Every structure is written in structure tokens, then in C-alpha cells.
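This section describes the prediction task in plain terms. A model, or a person checking by hand, is given the sequence of a single protein chain and must write out its three-dimensional structure as a string of C-alpha cells. No templates, partner chains or ligands are provided. The sample shown here is typical of the held-out split.
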Amino acid sequence: MHRMGNNVRTAVMTALYRKSLRLSSSARQEHGVGQITNYMVVDAQQLSDACLQLHVCWSMPLQVIIALVLLYQVIGTPAIAGIAAMIVITFTSLWITRRQKRFQGLLMQSRDRRMKAIAEILAYMKIIKLQAWEEKFEEKVVSDRKAEFNRLSQFVYSTAANTFTLWSLLPTVSVLTYVTAVLLDTGLTTAKVFTATSVFRIVQQPIWNFPQAAFALAQLVTSLERLDAYMRSSELEEGAVEKVMDMVGEEYPVTVHGGFFAWKESQAMPTLHDINLDIKRGSLVTIVGKVGSGKSSLLAALLGEMLKVSGTVRFSSKVYITQDVNFHNNFP
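The expected answer:
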């Protein structure tokens, strides 16, 4: 199962990386680099860890049931009190596990927000330094860290409560069983006590391991929900841009005719509309304009990173495209 967990983690990371290359512009805005990094590092690892713990979830209840049957055969009617206590404690543990799952989801959301903020700060560090915005963004990161710490505290406290509940299962069951046997005067002998104690010790280790398995199961469900939402995200339209490896004899390696492009599927008005462009072979073309005029959007449309509403786009793989925010300083 450990080997299988490693294989699962590798396969999931590969699938997530390939998905990131096909994400549409709206899906990239929804998930972000930091969140995708969490998918590949945290969620994929949780799937790997769960492979080792899943067997405890079915083997522990089976061992407990067998132990209860043996206990009833040894002690008789007083074992019913222990069984009732075990049922109550089990349902309490399940309720705490549901809270663990909810806290785990909130924790992952807080972690995604922190990772997104840090990724954006690192990506635009130059602008932040030039504008002297360090303190403002520091407050943002500290606030996200505090929110993540609060969610982590809730999750850890619920985990501790679940561990305490399950670890107190055996002492509670044994005490109730022996007290009931004494009160009912069913003939509790030394042999029966030693036999019952041996039965309790058989299931002691599985019960102690069950909180960790429940913890891994809660993380597994949360990670599967997150990965499912990510893998179902919209992708770039294949064939939106006709990419040609070598356009020998073509006078215009880049052509756009009647192009309408948008960043989101639900966008009412396309970001770029009625684009007609023919770039001649061997020419150097620069796109200049004020902020928000659509320069980066046009480059993204040529690369197929925007949603093509209508029109035709042909693009040669030998065309070199670069984006320089300081280009206007060199060419006023």
C-alpha cells in the first residue's frame, strides 16, 4: 500500500500539471498559481498517505465486533453495558470526525488564500518596491497567516478531542462491564476477568490507530473534493488558434481575421472585438498603449490563451513574442 500511495501521488501530480497547461483564462483566475501548487504538493500527498490508513477504517470495526462477541461469550449479559457504551462513544467520534472534515476544508481555503497572496507578492515584487507598498502587503500576509492559524487550531483541537474520545473507549467499556457484572452478581471470577482483559488488549492497538485513520480519511475527502473541482475546470479550446510549425512561402506568419476574444465564457461583451491583423514575415512589430488598452490581451489571444468567440487566427511557431513593461521607456 505504501508503494501504491507513491504511485498514486506521482500520477495525480502529473495529471494536475497537465491540467494546468490546458486551463482556460477564467479557470486560471479562479484557482491561481498558489492554489494549484497546494493541489500538487498538499492534496496529492494526502491521497498517498490515505492509502496506508484506509484499511484501518474497515479492519478496526471488524476487530471490535469480534472482541465484543468474545466478551459476551465470556461474561454474558453484563457485556451489553459495555457494548452500549461503545456505541455511544463511536457515534460521538463520528460526529467529531464530521467537524474535522469541515475544519479541514476551511483550513485548506485559508492556506490557498495565503499561498495566493505570497505568489502575487513575489510575482510583482518590483512594482511593490517601487511604490513602497511593503507594509501594506505585509499586513495582508500576516492577516492571512492569522486566519490560517485560527483554522488550524480548530482542526487540531477537534483532532485531540477525537483522539481522547477513542482512547477512553477501552477503559470506559471495561469499567462499565465489570461494574455491571458485580451489580448483577453474575459470578465474575478471576478467570473471566483475565480473559476479558485479554480481549480488551487485542483491540487496544487498532482503536489507538483509528484516530489517525479518521484524520487521514477526513483529509482524503476534502482533497478529493478540491481536486475534483479543479479537474472539472474549463479548458482552452483546442484548435482556436491554427498553429503551423513552418509556414514556408507564407508572406504573413501571423494573421487574425474578424477576431472576437473574451477572458470568460459568461462575459457579455468580448474584451477584444473585430480584430484584423496581418504581420509580415521578417518584420518587428511593437504594441504600445495605455494601461488597460488590451496589449496583453492581444498577445494572449495570439497564443490561444483567451476564449475565441469568433474569427480565425493563424500563428507560426517561429514567431517570437515578448512582453516588456519597460518597453515604453526605451521607445517613447
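For orientation: The first strand starts at residue 242 and ends at 244.
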